[in-house]
Specification:
With 506 residues, this protein is of the alpha+beta class. The chain is 36% helix and 19% strand. It is built from 16 helices and 21 strands. The strands form five sheets. It has a seven-stranded mixed beta sheet. A six-stranded mixed beta sheet has the order 7-2-1-11-20-19. α1 packs parallel to α6 and α9 packs antiparallel against α10. The model has no long low-confidence stretch (mean pLDDT 96). It binds flavin-adenine dinucleotide. Residues 13-18, 38-40, 43-46, 48-52, 163, 185-186, 217-219, 221, 223, 245, 247, 282, 314, 316, 333-334, 341, 344, 346-347 line the site of flavin-adenine dinucleotide.
């Protein structure tokens, strides 16, 4: 019997996308596969991407990574949600917290009960009915079952981490599972003259690396999917016009918040991501409405501790590749598209692409019907997340020209319909297996100021005193629970403090 030749997979790039892919493949593809990763220290990585959503825990758990060891290795902190400051108008803020808001009344979702309560002047902001939100704003933390009552939910959490430490952590993990790493810059992509498939990569050293399947994790350069195969990029900047970012670390603060903060400014917004050893900051802005100098000055003026470096510029175009899988190349990470980091979705998109690849698991023979289905799922996922991000911009009530332009844009039809459904009847429906749940859409639509005109029939029929009691009981229950939890800093010190690293200005 002839020997079965192993499938050779080549991962191009050693950023977060490359090493997450290598770690997962190394873990799940034990025999029959040879996995090699090529990265170029001369080119380097994008070096940002430090805020995540709770799904990252599923990735780590699937790989058997111990959570506290991962936190220590990456100087991570906990994340319970994202605070949006000034996104409706200056002086106002809300949190998109992970985890549920309130509790349904029978068939009737809590958002309906809330919207009726809001119109009657009996309901507070969504904050009051969300444990994650209350705990986050009190700078506390807890994992696992609630302490005070069985009806109180567990809090989902994610992390803020140092992207370069995470890549290093995953590199060790992947190499220990047989992934071979090659250092070098790829100068040429070789293709089969008849099929068009990629056959190999020529490194600057002259070495040729051949393979059956190539995973393009080369970042915005899109070395294989874009440059070699010429797959077009669908530009979404008419919906998401920010096109530049400046990133800068600042000194650690003693009191780190268990949430990401996103603060709206005149022509974009600023992120703040607290880690154990430093804080990550950045300004995302639209070059048509402000200059690079003004954006840098404003970024530095809004840090809460001294900057540790000069702001580093990054340019981008929001959008996606028309096809993420073409020939024998699959794009993962920034090579497949970019959505600004407002809802920390890029690392999740990497994770989701990896799990999709593992479901299809292309071998030496691949078919167009498989590629078409993969690309359909990829497009759906990207478009729904895009809508969710546009939602934050379009519902603003700010005065600056940039924000007026965002308010006046023609929305994707899928988003316009969602907003109208909520505004008219308080309805929110999750579309198939899109990433964001009803409760996420609820928090952002309510946080951006929509109070629906009507509610579900069950909510409309509730006795007013019962409705008030329902709302007040949930709020009191969650306040009582939150009061039991230690501060975020104490929680980390107790469970997963990372080794101290002294960060000094460059
Ligand atoms: C401003 C900004 C903020 C962000 N914030 C977040 C966030 O908070 N949360 C989140 O989830 N995501 C965030 N992201 C996205 C996140 O940074 C990326 O999704 C993630 O880092 C993955 O990047 P990557 O691995 O695809 O690309 P990169 O990090 O750019 O890696 C590309 C790799 O390809 C290699 N390479 C390229 N060309 C060659 C060649 N010719 N030969 C050999 N090697 C080559 C490079 O050396 C590198 O190793 C942010 C992105 C931006 C732009």
């Amino acid at each position: 019997m002839a020997d079965v030749q192993p499938v050779e997979i080549v991962i191009v790039g050693g950023g977060t996308a490359g090493w997450m892919t290598a770690a997962a493949f190394g873990h799940f593809l034990e025999s029959g596969y040879k996995i090699r990763l090529i990265e170029s220290e001369a080119i380097g990585t994008i070096g940002v991407g430090e805020a995540t959503i709770p799904q990252i825990r599923m990735f780590n758990q699937a790989l058997g990574i111990d959570e506290d060891a991962f936190i220590r290795a990456t100087q991570a902190t906990f994340k319970l949600g994202i605070e949006f400051v000034g996104w409706t108008k200056p002086g106002e803020s809300y949190l998109h917290a992970f985890g549920d808001v309130g509790r349904a009344v029978g068939l009737c979702g809590f958002h309906h009960v809330w919207s009726r309560g809001r119109r009657l002047g009996l309901a507070g902001p969504t904050h009051d009915y969300c444990l994650n939100d209350i705990v986050a704003k009190q700078d506390r933390m807890h994992r696992g079952r609630a302490l005070t009552a069985p009806t109180v939910p567990e809090m989902p959490h994610a992390f803020h981490f140092d992207a370069s430490l995470y890549a290093r952590f995953l590199r060790q993990f992947a190499e220990a599972r047989g992934v071979v790493r090659s250092e070098g810059t790829i100068d040429e992509v070789l293709r089969d003259g008849q099929t068009g498939d990629v056959t190999g990569l020529r490194l600057a050293s002259g070495e040729i690396v051949g393979g059956d399947l190539f995973i393009d994790c080369s970042g915005m350069r899109a070395l294989l999917i874009g440059q070699a195969l010429g797959v077009a990029y669908e530009d979404w900047s008419h919906w998401l016009p920010c096109d530049r970012a400046l990133a800068v670390p600042s000194a650690r603060v003693e009191h780190f918040t268990p949430y990401t903060r996103s603060t709206a400014h005149d022509a974009g917004w600023q992120w703040r991501i607290p880690l154990q050893h430093r804080t990550g900051n950045g300004r995302v802005y639209c070059s048509a409405f402000t200059s690079d100098e003004a954006a840098a000055d404003s970024l530095l003026a809004h840090l809460d501790a001294p900057a540790l470096d000069d702001p580093r510029p990054i340019r981008f175009t929001t959008g996606r590749r028309r096809e993420a899988w073409k020939h024998n190349v699959i794009a993962v990470g920034l090579s497949s598209g970019f959505l600004e980091p407002l809802e920390s979705t890029s690392i999740h998109l990497i994770q989701s692409a990896i799990s999709r690849i593992l479901k299809f698991l292309p071998g030496k023979v691949q078919s167009q019907v498989e590629r078409d289905e993969y690309n359909r799922q990829f497009a759906f996922e990207m478009e729904r997340i895009r809508d969710f991000i546009v939602l934050h911009y379009t519902l603003n009530e700010r005065d600056e020209p940039f924000w007026r332009a965002c308010r006046d844009m023609t929305l994707p039809g899928s988003l316009a319909d969602r907003i109208a459904l909520f505004r008219e009847g308080g309805h929110i429906f999750r579309d198939s297996d899109e990433l964001f749940s009803e409760v996420a859409w609820f928090q952002v639509m309510a946080g951006q100021g929509i109070v629906p005109l009507r509610s579900h029939g069950i909510a409309e029929a509730l006795d007013v005193a019962d409705l008030k009691a329902w709302l007040d009981t949930i709020a009191a229950l969650y306040q009582r629970e939150a009061a039991q939890y230690p501060t975020h800093a104490d929680y980390i010190a107790r469970h997963c403090a990372a080794p101290a690293i002294e960060m000094v200005p460059a």
